[in-house]
Model the fold of this input.
Amino acid sequence: MLKKFKNFLLNKLFAKSLKKLSKVKRFYYQTIKVFWISIDHFFKHQITLRSSALTYFSLMAIVPFFALIFAIAKKIGDQETIEKEILERFKEQQEIVVKVIEFAKNLIVEAKGGLIALVGITFLFWTLIKLFSNLESSLNEIWRVTNIRKFKRRLSNYLAFMFVVPVFLVVFITLRMYVTNLISKDIVVEYIFRVPLTLIPYFLILALFTFVYVFIPKVKVKIKYAFLSAVISATIYQITQMIYVNFQIGITKFNAIYGSFAALPLFLIWLQISWIIFLYGAEICFAIQNVDKIKVKDLQKK
Done:
């Protein structure tokens, strides 16, 4: 019964010609189709399972990534400022972040060591490459890409991404702190720029999502569609993070069960939800760009 009802809706929605409709009605139908396609593909592509793999590699890659940030901060920025900003940004996961920062600093020190240190560092950076590889694989699956890039090209892309992103983050955080300190000297200016400054993290996430949606999959993705889907996913991400920070349900229970380890399961949940939101944004991007090409039979396939 439910299957018949679903097929009825699909035929009504996707068989209908939109050319003769007004712009408002066409937009209405297109929006429904986009979200239908994205939700359908969300389950077909097993996004929750893929997000689990990305969460696992993110957990392994987080220490070398932070080590890169601090190493670059020593050269072109203020490490203490960067550390303070990271702790402020992730204050809801402060217990975890403090440990990560400690491990990252130790990794930088160990980098000056001998062969054993070199093997350990190589393994940690391998986890970063595996993270990028899984990310590209997930996005290619969403975009139905079968002809993947050659290994050399992928490796060069991963290495470039691995170093460009930390540099960008260090420069961005340093400039943001400089501007914040500058305008704090004037009460009127501080009041005017208070809202724009609070929106900076959102625009950073928006820019990062757009960049990844456009350049990581091996397919031509239109920037306007990537940006639109990034707006949706970045907004959902920010709202989810606000809910997570302000309304952490069951924290007391977690503390009773896990004690000081309570932060870890909560961090893992937050990390996986973040990846789910990001990948769903990629599904929306695919749906927007291909909404007129998707037929009823494509959605009826298992």
Notes: The chain has one domain: 35-300. Residues 35-300 form one domain. Residues 202 and 238 are 7 Å apart (CA to CA).
